[in-house]
Design brief:
There is one protein chain. With 684 residues, the chain is an alpha+beta fold. Helix content is 48%, strand content 11%. A hairpin with a 4-residue loop joins strand 7 and strand 8. Helix 2 packs antiparallel against helix 3 and helix 13 packs antiparallel against helix 14. The radius of gyration is 31 Å and the shape is globular.
Length: 684
């Protein structure tokens, strides 16, 4: 027998045995989620939708299981090998070595070799942003499984609320046969936030007993999530302050640096647990707010001892706060005894303060400045009547930590309106009260019929499809085409002789007229600057109007991200947070549909509707107090001048400043020509 053949036969037999062993269930380790994800993406671009679903669902399952395994093993090994406070250095490092060995054995018993699960930062970010659910919703839709497509789309949209196409997909799924409201679930919902949201809704309806159950569940889930978050911090760390090749620390420097990074990560769990998916800013006062809601809810159901316990717990976070201190005094008087804060709140605060002390020391060792985050800043005292305990009016009162305040109804009422209209021809049609809101106004006869006709003619001459919408011809709905042009573009066209210069000047002057009216009516104390000016027309696409359930422009706010489920509007990017007032000047009304609507924060309840017509202008403040949208344009073309303004001169529209220079140049040229109307192009 050939020797080489015998050797090959031997190794083939060994390989077959090993393959049999490792493919049996006992050796079936966790599949790497990045590999499954890549296979799913490849299947998607091959239109293999069954495998898209298979790979993506397995990738999500693997990702979750890897996370659960790390948490379980780190907590388990910590309990099995605790640090003895009175031990020597050798005892300390003995516990460290045993804990490390325990971790490695525990994790690899489930997932296999940990080196197989080292994933690139790009893939990690894709999972944080829930990108796999985008592929899943499209694949499920192709496979005619609309209920699963709806759930995947809803899950993705929660973390990506600015994704316009997904909002359209959700509207389409709602119209599909067999899709129910309960199909729109967040598959990645965090239990503590889900329970808290449910509790708030019940609290707002005065259903206090039911709200208490949810708030208690939310607290329990929060503290569980906090333990898990801290455990996940015990992984590899990045040392951005040091160049890797030159970083040669001594033993205790290395331990100190690594531990400080872990400690900082654990401290940031406060922010992480209070941040909703897709948001940059956490809900301010989030954990203390649980105790605030609970103390008042318990009071309303006559459970005074529990109410005092929760009020005392709140004061651990905001020592000496007036409104809660008065509540505690009331509860103490009713009970005739003292009640201590809850133990879990005491333990949490004690650990948090210890972390702060250690972080200050560790940051000094790292040579970086540590700034304590204001995680629990309070909304300030509240007035109590007849010493009856006060409760929160709802979480809209607590604004994001980023110090970019949300506008609340109370703040808006302090603003003024009703100033002079500047121009005699302009008529006030409806004020805020008539429009069922705050900082809203409707004018007629802002411009004449002739001016409307000229601006419409101008629009048809200069507008380009997708202008102002990053080139997308149907940015808000596939059933309409959007075209637009800016003031600067029209002036340039006029200067070049491609359109009548008179019409370009009119666009510039009309927009300035609108700015003056808004600034004067709302009685602003400082100059209102242009943020963006856009001549825009939207046209119904023929053949696509029979069955429409979407809007021409979905409900939104102009300077914050509207979050209807949380009853919030988050003032953070990608919203244009610097915009303060908005206005829409309509050029026509000869089209079907297209009404402008204001809604409540739920983005469903319509509070006012405006039918466009020539010379009509609606103006309003740009924040979360004025959610608005446009109903579907089902026939014809709807044209308007859209204007956004800012009180901050740093955010003035650059194109507007350039347009001002062009106008100044044209005016100077006109003076030199002694009033003669000469087109610059004619001089060539």
């Amino acid at each position: 027998m050939d020797v080489n053949f015998s050797i090959r036969l031997f190794f083939a037999g060994i390989f077959a045995i090993l393959q049999t062993i490792f493919l049996c269930p006992a050796y079936a380790f966790l599949e790497p989620y990045d590999l499954l994800y890549d296979n799913g993406v490849e299947a998607f671009y091959s239109s293999d939708y069954k495998n898209v679903v298979s790979y993506m669902e397995r990738a999500l399952s693997s990702y979750s299981e890897l996370r659960r395994t790390k948490v379980r093993c780190r907590l388990q090994c910590r309990d099995q090998h605790p640090f003895d406070e009175s031990s020597s250095d050798l005892r300390f490092f003995d516990a460290v070595l045993h804990r490390a060995s325990c971790l490695n054995e525990c994790i690899e018993s489930v997932v296999g070799s940990q080196s197989m699960h080292r994933v690139s930062e790009d893939v990690i970010q894709d999972f944080h942003r829930r990108i796999p659910y985008n592929y899943l919703q499209l694949a499920y839709a192709k496979l005619k499984q609309p209920d699963k497509a709806a759930a995947a789309a809803h899950t993705y949209f929660q973390a990506n609320p600015e994704h316009v196409e997904m909002s359209h997909n959700l509207e389409q799924y709602k119209a599909w046969e067999g899709v129910q409201e309960e199909n729109f679930i967040d598959r990645e919902a965090r239990p503590h936030q889900k329970a808290f949201t449910a509790g708030v809704k019940l609290y707002d309806r005065g259903e206090y007993e039911e709200a208490i159950a949810y708030f208690e569940e939310a607290l329990e889930e929060y503290y569980k999530a906090d333990v898990e978050c801290r455990a996940l911090c015990e992984g590899p760390q990045n040392f951005a302050e040091h160049e890797h090749l030159n970083y040669r620390p001594a033993l205790y420097e290395l331990i100190s640096d690594h531990f400080t990074q872990v400690l900082h990560c654990e401290h940031e769990c406060v922010r992480d647990l209070a941040t909703r998916p897709g948001r940059l800013s956490p809900m301010e006062n989030y954990l203390p707010l649980h105790y605030d809601y609970l103390q008042f809810a318990y009071f309303k159901v006559n459970m005074i001892q529990e109410a005092m316990e929760c009020a005392q717990s709140y004061l651990l976070f905001h020592e000496g706060e007036e409104f809660m201190t008065e509540n505690v005094d009331y509860y103490r008087e009713v009970l005739g005894q003292e009640v201590k804060p809850r133990e879990e709140a005491q333990r949490y605060i004690k650990r948090h303060r210890q972390e702060l002390d250690l972080l200050r020391v560790g940051s000094d060792n790292l040579g970086v400045e540590y700034t304590e985050g204001n995680y629990w800043s309070s909304s300030g005292g509240r007035e109590d009547v007849n010493r009856i305990p006060s409760g929160t009016d709802g979480w809209m009162e607590y604004v994001p930590i980023s110090e970019k305040k949300n506008v609340t109804a109370n703040e808006v009422k302090e603003l003024r309106e009703g100033g002079p209209l500047v121009y005699d021809s302009v008529r006030l049609v409806q004020n805020s009260e008539a429009l069922n809101g705050t900082q809203r106004v409707l004018f007629d006869d802002v411009i004449s019929e002739d001016e409307c006709a000229e601006l419409k003619h101008l629009a048809h001459a200069v507008m380009m499809a997708g202008d102002g919408y990053r080139g997308k011809t149907s940015p808000h709905t596939p059933n309409e085409k959007f075209e637009g042009a800016t003031v600067l573009k029209t002036l340039q066209y006029g200067f070049e002789g491609r359109i009548p210069l008179k019409s370009a000047r009119m666009f510039y002057e009309v927009s300035e007229k609108a700015r003056q009216i808004i600034e004067s009516y709302f009685m602003l104390n400082s100059t209102l600057h242009f943020s963006y000016t856009h001549l825009v027309c939207r046209t119904a696409i023929t053949g696509q109007q029979n069955v429409r359930s979407d809007l021409s422009h979905p409900i939104h706010a102009d300077n914050c991200l509207l979050d209807p489920e949380a009853n919030e509007c988050w003032k953070e990017p990608p919203a244009y947070t610097y915009r303060d007032y908005s206005a829409l000047l309509y050029l026509n009304g000869d089209f079907e549909g297209g009404e402008f609507i204001f809604t409540e924060m739920d983005a469903k309840t319509v509070t006012a509707s405006v039918k466009p017509k020539c010379g009509r202008m609606v103006g309003f403040s740009s924040g979360g107090e004025n959610p608005h949208g446009v109903r579907a344009v089902t026939g014809g073309q709807r044209c308007a001048v859209a204007l956004w303004f800012t009180l901050d001169p740093l955010f003035r529209e650059l194109e507007r400043l350039q347009a001002d220079e062009v106008m100044e140049s044209l005016n100077n040229q006109q003076q030199l020509d002694h009033g003669l109307s000469i087109n610059p192009k004619d001089e060539l």
